[in-house]
């Protein structure tokens, strides 16, 4: 594990964090990516929890970042606040050195101190269970359409906080970028012109 410094993301870090996200996700899930645009939209939104959004630095360069947002669970008794996060990104040349682990663990510890009681995400189902995440059905939580799948996971930061809290999870609208929506993709293309050019490729592992 390399020796990194972690701190909160500040306004003047935003472009460099967006560049990092582009490098980390480019051609990973689809030809190109839109995660850098998601960061831009999230950071300037009301739901962004900036005090939990962290970056990792190594030798003066930003090598990792995680951003958080407020989300909600709708139950028969009303709404319950929860958190979601994403993107969690690490410089490709430094991946598998524990940077993502540090960002995740540090931000979760801080979230608990700040009084947040749970987190729900759609993430890699082989990665997040190592940090205590369980499939959302274990908490009686579904997506808005009532479905569940392995990548939809949650964790209690405060034990028992989700007891008797069955309901439906709603992520903030800022996360709902539709790559099949022509207008949205035009926004992504326009935004991407501010960044160094990278070639889009269609690859077998892409799922979006």
- In CATH, what is the class? Alpha Beta
State the major sheet. 6 strands, mixed
The CATH superfamily turns out to be Gcn5-related N-acetyltransferase (GNAT)
CATH architectural designation: 3-Layer(aba) Sandwich
Shape: globular
Share of residues in strands:
25-35%
Under CATH, the topology is which? Answer: Aminopeptidase
Which range best describes the helical content: under 10%, 10-25%, 25-40%, 40-55%, 55-70% or over 70%? 10-25%
Topology, element by element:
Layout (H helix, E strand, L loop, with lengths): L4 E4 L5 H12 L9 H9 L10 E5 L2 E15 L2 E13 L8 H15 L4 E5 L11 E2 L5 E2 L9 E5 L10 E4 L11 H11 L16
Parallel strand pairs: 7-9
Antiparallel strand pairs: 1-2, 2-3, 3-4, 3-9, 5-8, 6-8
Note down, in words, how this protein is organized.
The chain is an alpha+beta fold. It has one domain (5-192): Aminopeptidase (3-Layer(aba) Sandwich), CATH 3.40.630. It is built from four helices and nine strands; from the N terminus they run βααβββαβββββα. The strands form two sheets. Strands 1, 2, 3, 4, 7 and 9 form a six-stranded mixed sheet that branches. A three-stranded antiparallel sheet has the order 5-8-6, with no helix packed on it. α1 (14-25) runs antiparallel to α2 (35-43). The longest helix is centred in the middle third of the chain and has 15 residues, at 99-113. The model has no long low-confidence stretch (mean pLDDT 95).
